Amino acid sequence: MAVVHRPLPADPFDLWLRDELGVVLGLPHDGTRVEIVGGEIVVSPGPDFAHNLIVGDLQDAFAAAKALGRMEGWRCVQTQDVSLSEIHEGYIPDLCVMSDADVHKARDRRSTKILPDELTLAVEVTSRSNVAEDREPGPRRRRPSKWNGYARTGVPFYLLVDRDPQVAATTLFTEPNPAGMYEESVKWKFGEIVELPEPFGVRVGTEEWEPWG
């Protein structure tokens, strides 16, 4: 992950909205992600295989629940741009869970970006390169993270899969407040069953999830 400081021909968020930021920065088309987090341009390499397997396991769990009639009315979308225009930031969650109604609303807008009020659950899986951007900020971090941005814009559920070997846990954050904090959370260590509450009612096995390294 790299945080970029350089002159640009326009506002970084406006460039990001127009899908021009990566072009201006000369980024390769190889899965490299460019986001705006905490007021900074953040460039991250594409995720590794173990990371993608975790995202796939989560999506499979939602699909299995839907097949059993427990997730009717919900859709999952991977690596979807989310425009947090209220705070002038743009994220690319590993997985977005949206209601059918919000999917239709986003389609009707004919935009390549969805809005926070169309996103019910955001999922981020940490990588060695970007872990600080996804977590609740520690005392030494001077700028907000995605944890703050999702909360401030009212995303009801934030699921963080932290592959740091010293953590190796999944945390569901709930009850966002306008100050940019989630007031409630529940954590599962890798190997335990993640049980997502209503409106999802989804159980996810994590016995094959691995920390990085």
Q: What quaternary form is this? A: single chain
Kindly report how far apart the N and C termini lie.
16 Å
Query: Percent range for helical residues?
Result: 10-25%
Share of β-strand residues: 25-35%
**Shape designation:** globular
The order of strands across the largest sheet is 4-7-8-9-10-11
* Count of discrete alpha- or pi-helical segments spanning 4 or more residues: 6
Could you tell me the radius of gyration in angstroms?
A: 17 Å
- Please identify the structural class as seen in this structure: alpha+beta
What is the string of SSEs from the N terminus onward? EHHEEHEEEEHEHHEEEEE
Question: How is the main sheet built?
Answer: 6 strands, mixed
Poorly predicted parts: none
Mean pLDDT: 94
Number of strands: 13
Description:
The chain is of the alpha+beta class and about 210 residues long. The protein is built from 6 helices and 13 strands. It has helices at about 10-15, 20-25, 50-65, 100-110, 130-135, 145-150; strands spanning about 1-5, 35, 40-45, 75-80, 80-85, 90, 95-100, 120-125, 155-160, 170-175, 180-190, 195, 200-205. The chain has a 6-stranded mixed β-sheet with strand order 4-7-8-9-10-11. The protein has a 3-stranded antiparallel β-sheet with strand order 1-3-2. β12 (about 195) and β13 form a beta hairpin. It is globular and about 50 Å long. The protein starts with a strand and ends in a 9-residue tail after the last strand.
Fold blueprint:
Layout: E1 2-4, H1 12-17, H2 21-24, E2 33-37, E3 40-44, H3 49-67, E4 74-78, E5 82-84, E6 89-91, E7 95-99, H4 100-109, E8 121-125, H5 131-134, H6 146-152, E9 157-162, E10 169-177, E11 181-189, E12 194-196, E13 202-204
Parallel strand pairs: 8-9
Antiparallel strand pairs: 1-3, 2-3, 4-7, 5-6, 7-8, 9-10, 10-11, 12-13
